[in-house]
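Item description
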Amino acid sequence: MRYGHFDEKNREYVITNPATPSAWANYLGSPDYGAIISNNAGGYSFVKSGANGRLIRYRFNSVTTDQPGRYIYLRDAEDGDFWSASWMPVGKPLEQYKSECRHGTAYTVISSEYKDIQTETLYYVPLGATHEVWRLKVTNNGATPRKLSVTGYVEFTNEPNYEQDQVNLQYTLFISRTYFNGDHILQKINENFGDPNRERFFGVAGADVTAYCGDRDKFVGAYRGYHNPAGISGGLRGDLNYNDNACGALQSDITLAPGETKEIVYLLGQKTEAQAGALIGEYREAGRAERELAELKAYWHGKLDNLQVQTPDENFNNMVNVWNAYQCFITFIWSRAASFQYCGLRNGYGYRDTVQDIQGIIHLAPEMAREQIVFMLSAQVDNGAGLPLVKYNHNPGHEDTPDDASYVKSTGHPSYRADDALWLFPTVKKYIDESGELAFLDHEVLFANADKPASVYEHLKRAIQFSMNNLGAHGMPAGLHADWNDCLRLGKMGESTFVLFQLYYALRILKGYAEIKNDTAYIETLSGLLKDTEAKINGLCWDGDRWIRGFREDGGVIGKKGDPEAAMWLNPQSWGVISGASGTERGTLTMDTVYNELNTPNGIMLMYPAYHNHAFDGALAVCFNRGTKENAGIFSQSQGWAILAEALLGRGNRAYQYWSEASPASMNDDADRRVLEPYVHGQFIEGKDSPFAGRAHVHWLTGTASTVMVGTVEGILGLRPAPGGITIDPSIPGEWKDWSMTKKLRGKTLRICVQNPNGGVHGVKSVTVNGEKLDGCFIPDSAMKAENDIILQM
C-alpha cells in the first residue's frame, strides 16, 4: 500500500494517509538544538545531546505508538467536540478527518481539515537557533462563525539525562516545578541551584492565553490518555506541578468568521524567564516564520544544488537530489545520537561511524566535511588508533584513551578497533579530490592524547603504523576488539580479511601522497608493504571463488567455501574490488558469487547461511534470529560498497540493480512490507530466512546513507574529482539512453549531458567540453570555465 509520494519540485515527501505502518520521521535543527518529528507530530527535542539534553519526552517502543509529541488540540466551544491538528493523538475517523504531512529539508508541515476547520502547522528550528517554532494557521472554511479553543501542549522531561528521567524516578519526580508567566509556562529543575541551563519554556505569540496547565497528570487526567485528556474535554484549570510530572499547556480562545484565518506561534526551548519573554516578543512580528522558513530552504537547497541529476528513473532522481543527500547531512550531524530507535544513550561520536558519514556530504559541502575531518583527526590517539567513542565535549590533546581505566569507565569501550583509523584514508582522499586542497596534508592537528600537533600526513602515517604494530599470526591485521562488524569478534589476535583490504587501499592512497611530497624513503617502505600485503591477500585469503572473512584466534578460517554456516561474506568481496587488490578477473568472479549466493529481491545479505548451530564464540550475530541484522540480514550499509564495486567493474546493470533493490523509494508502493519510511535508508532489511523478508528497521541514522551515496555518485554516475580536474566515467543501466546531471566543482558549474544511444552500460567514447573534444574521460581544470557544457557519449 502507498501512504505518500515524492514531490521533487518542492523537495518534500508528502504523506497523504497518516496511518503509516510506523512513525515516519523528519529531523529539524542543528548540532546545538535537535528535534525529531513524525508525520503525526510525535517526537522529542534536545539541546546538543540526545542523552544529556532532553527537553520533552517520547515513549519508545510503546503500545501507544508515537507518543507524546508536539500537540495542538482544537475544541469547538459550541458542541464540545475536539480534535488535534495532527491526526494523532486524538485520532478522528479518517472518513471525516483529512490529513497531509509534508516532510521537507529541516521543516515539516502538517495540515488537517475537520468539520470545516482547516489547520496548517509548520514545525522548524530556525538556522543557528536553539529553540523550535510551531507556526499554526487556523481557517474557517464554513459558512458560519466558529468559536474555538486552541491548546498547544508538550510533556517536559523532569531531568535532561534521558536515563535518569525514565528510570531514577525516586529522584526525578521530586525536582521539577512549573510557573505561568502570562504568555509561557516556565519549568525549573533543581530550582534551588539557580542553574539557567535547567530552565525550559513553552510559550505562545499571536494569541492571548485564556487558560493554562503545567501539571501533566492534571492535564491528562486519571485513566485517560492523550487521545482524550481531561484538560481538553473539561478545560484547563491553572494547575502547576510541584513534584511529579511537568508539562506545558496553553489555551487560546478564538473566534473565526467564515473564510477567516488566524495565526498562532508556539515556541519551545531551554531558556530563562527573561530570555523566553524576549523571544516570544520577537515572534509577534508578522511574517517572521515565513522569512525563517525561506532561510532554511535557501540553506539546505543550496547544499543540494551542488549535485542534481535527471535520469529516466524518478526514484533515483528523488533519492540522489533530495532524500539520500539530506539523510547524509543528518547522519553527519547527529551520528547515532537520537532517533526513534536510538533512544539517546550514546553520548558521543563513534569513530568509524562518523568518519564514514563524512564521505556522504563531501561532494555537496566539502567545507563542512573538512571541519569534521579535522575534528576526527584530533580524536586519533598518538599510537595511530582512533578513540572508539569520541565524547561530545572532546578536548584534543588532553583525552584519556582505551589504555586508561578512566576512559573505559566513562565510555564503556575497553579497547581499540582494528578498522577505525583506516577509514581516514578514503575520507581524506575524497575531501582532497573534491576540494583540490593538497595542502591539507600539511595542516597540523593535535592528537587526542598529545598536545603537540602533527600534519595530516603524519596522522595517516601513524594509522598505518598502528595496523603494522597489531598483526596476527599470519601477519594480517589483528581483529582487536572488532573490525567493522561489531558482531564478529575474531579475538584480539584473530585476523580480518576485510581490514586487510582496507590496509591495502590505505597503503595505495598514502603512497600516492608520499610521491606528491617526494618522501623517497617512505615511498620505498610503502612499496614493500604493498607487495607484502598483496602476497598475504592472494596467498592466505583466496578460496576458489571468494575471499575468506578471516581467521579466528585459534587459526580456524571464517567464511570458507562449504562451511555449513557463514560460508560466504559480502564485505571482503566488495572491498577486494574497491581496494584494487582483486583485479578484474577475481573481482568479477567474487562479485558473481555474491550475486549467486547472497543476493535477494530486497538486497544483498551480509553473509549466508545464517549462524544457528555452528557459531564459534566470537560469532555474536548468532544472538539474532536468522535473517536479522548481522546474522544473514541485509545489512544496508554494505549495499553501497557492492554498488561501487560493480560500477568499478563496469557492470552498470548490476550496480543499478543493487541500487534499486535496496532503495527505500523502490518500496513506496509496498510500504506495509517495508514498514520504515520509503524516503530514507534503514540499518538493515530482514533477509530471506525471515518470514518477514523485506521488512526494514532502525531508520535515518545509519552509515547506509553515506555508502549508498558514494556508490551512486562515484560508481553509477562516475563522478570522480581529482586535484587537477575530474573523471566522468558512468556505469549505468543500459535503458538510460539520454540523461543529464549538474555538478558544482570548486566554483565551477558542470552541466553534463550523457548520450547513450546504443544502450551501453560502461565506457566513454568521447567527451566534449564547451565545444572542444577531449581524449579520454578526464577533464582537466584547464579545460573548464566558470560555466561548462559537457557532452559525454557512451
In short: The CA atoms of residues 151 and 251 lie 4 Å apart. The chain has a mean pLDDT of 97.
